[in-house]
Write a structure and sequence with these properties.
Shape of chain A: globular
Radius of gyration of chain A: 19 Å
Helix content of chain A: 55-70%
Mean pLDDT of chain A: 91
Oligomer: homodimer
Chain lengths: 133, 133
DNA sequence: CTGTATCCCCGATGATACTG
DNA sequence: CAGTATCATCGGGGATACAG
């Protein structure tokens, strides 16, 4: 069974079970990955553990507010762990948990798809916009 | 090289190239997948071609407005094709394009991850919320 | 049946200032 | 350094009515 058949079959199972959106694993996961910063933070932490300021330098266009909030959400979901060192000034290190690491394979598959197909998508957009104009 | 190393290495390449967000394939793709309805529509169309009303029945909690808009976005990106049959009343069928089908494998990987890890995530949340309270 | 056009609201995000 | 608190903004998305 290919993944294509798998996704289609999944749809039919969903239809039969009439899942509540709040109980749908896919919405749960994609709602988080889909927000503006989660995937970037996960990718950064995949490369290496980061302290708060280092993460901020790695992703310059995020605000401290959203960096904190996104990290808390990831921590809450068990994807990231937070390690406080009571130095002065304080330092806090963020790491992917094993659960977080386990997401890298499927995320990597999507990233690879995105990179390999991006030019095709951009071309399709240009054509569509041309015809619309 | 595992996908994990791949994602980490990707991060370093991104850092060196200092990509504009608008040119980042991953943001492009995840912004679309991350919206409220795209993934559900793609999964539905993976199972089979759908007419507008059938798609609406398959995903009852979407409004006609957002269904139309999301389908247009998918069409613009070349992931979905639109086929009009000039019957009365009119009927329109939506299908995944080959490009759209090519996304099902990586999307399926993510869906499989989400389903297999969802209980772990829910448990982590419960623990986190308990400690916070 | 397959959409468009409007209006409206709320939540996600940013900016800025402050704190241990 | 690593956040928190507060206010302002903007656009995604719902509801409704209309149209070809």
């Amino acid at each position: 069974m290919t993944s294509t058949e798998g996704v289609g079959a999944l749809f039919d199972r969903w239809q039969q079970r009439r899942l509540e959106p709040s109980q749908c694993p896919v919405r749960d996961v994609l709602d988080r990955l889909g927000d503006k910063w989660t995937s970037l933070i996960v990718v950064a932490l995949a490369a290496r553990d980061h302290r708060f300021a280092a993460l901020h330098r790695a992703i310059p266009d995020i605000s401290k507010r959203m960096l904190t909030q996104t990290l808390r959400d990831l921590e809450r979901d068990g994807l990231v762990s937070r390690h406080v060192f009571p130095t002065t000034p304080p330092s806090v290190e963020y790491r992917l948990t094993p659960l977080g690491h386990s997401m890298l394979d499927p995320l990597g598959a999507l990233v690879a798809w995105a990179e390999s197909r991006h030019s095709e998508i951009r071309t399709a957009r240009a054509v569509f916009d041309q015809r619309a104009a």
